[in-house]
Amino acid sequence: MTAYEKRENKQYYAAVVESDKIAENSYNLSVSSYVEQEDIREKIDIVKLNAEIKEIVAREEKLRAEIDKIIAEIEESV
Question: Secondary structure of 27-38 in the HEC alphabet?
Fold first, then answer.
């Protein structure tokens, strides 16, 4: 209510719009027509993410080799 009462423009929250602009927009009173929604998506560092994936894949390959070695030892003892 404060933004309305003070007739304030607040980014991502409120906008004071002239009636001629509303008329140009077919009298659409939807807030999203005049106030841009804030982008709150998580920012991802793709370089860091790729490095982490590379480490995970390397660790998975090492573990797979150790499992294969254990299985081979079990098969030999049977």
Answer: CCCCHHHCCCCC
CA torsion sign for 18, 32, 36, 25 is negative
Q: Which residues contact 4 (CB under 8 A, 6 or more apart)?
A: 14
Write down the residue that tokens 């077919």 correspond to.
Answer: 26
Query: For residues 22 and 29, what is the distance between their CA atoms, to the nearest angstrom?
Result: 7
Place of tokens 């982490």: 52
Measured in whole angstroms, the distance separating CA 1 from the mean position of its chain's CA atoms is: 30
21-63 pLDDT tens trace: 999 999 999 989 999 999 989 999 999 999 999 999 999 999 9
